[in-house]
Amino acid sequence: MSVISAGPFPLMALLGLLAAFVAWLFARGLATPADGARSRVGAVVTDAFLLGVLGARLAHVLWHAGDYLPDPVSIIRLGDGGYSVAAGLAVAVAYAWWRTRRQAPRKPVMLGLAAGAALWAIGGMALFAVQRSTIALPDVVLHDLQGTAVPLSSRAGQPLVVNLWASWCGPCRREMPVLARAQAEHPQVGFVFANQGEDAAEIRLFLQEEQLTLGNILLDPESELMRQTGARALPTTLFFDADGRLRNAHMGELSRATLNARLRELQ
């Protein structure tokens, strides 16, 4: 079973939605049915969740403003990741506290939010533990552009970023300059660009058209890395620590801000 995604959706995103639903359900269950209290409680929890997500995103963007300024559009790519959990919780609780001063019972709302937060925290830790225990650096042999066999395990011993990509993939093409720059700026981190299903001629043409200079481009013609890691879409970027254990995975286009944050976590 994949621990990176469920179909096209990251598991942490699905866990967040489940936690919001549990908070809503729990709060409504604690509220009395009189005078529409359950509807009001449910509405407050829903609004608190949405505002919490927004607050978490804004706090993260402000904290990493220097990384976002070169590409302001990346600020609104919510699927890119980058959320301050502490800020999101603070916004959600503050809103719920303010909103329940008159119009809705406070206790069911707060207990509902606490239940949702607990589920998210426990579920997140469980997913992280499963991820680290089940996904190690795959023991596969790929080939470079000259046809030389390269065992992926030969890249172990240092933090490693493995990018699964293809030249026909629009998001892959858009994120590649960001990855190329990071490879040049972080020599202490290994980067592997594992192309999925294309041949060397197609890759060379892409690099020439985009005027990109990349090191460690490897060919994965049978998409063995996708199969072994459970990745379901391109691009997918995998972050392994020096022990070869998966620390993080990102499905979709990476912004400079999110990539830098993941690299800081690896070092």
TrEMBL record:
Q: Which UniProt keywords apply?
A: Cytochrome c-type biogenesis, Disulfide bond, Membrane, Redox-active center, Transmembrane, Transmembrane helix
Location within or outside the cell: Cell envelope
Q: Which residues form the Thioredoxin domain?
A: 131-267
> Which SUPFAM superfamilies does this chain map to?
Thioredoxin-like
**Bilayer-spanning residue ranges:** 12-31, 43-63, 75-98, 110-130
Entry-linked Gene3D superfamilies: Glutaredoxin
Main localisation: other
Q: One Pfam family from the UniProt entry?
A: LGT
Q: Report the superkingdom from the record.
A: Bacteria
Q: Does the keyword Signal apply?
A: no
Q: Which InterPro entries match?
A: Lgt, Redoxin, Thioredoxin-like_sf, Thioredoxin_CS, Thioredoxin_domain, Thioredoxin_ResA/DsbE_sf
Q: Which PANTHER family does the UniProt record give?
A: THIOL:DISULFIDE INTERCHANGE PROTEIN DSBE
This one is known as TlpA family protein disulfide reductase
Can you name the source organism? Answer: Stenotrophomonas mori
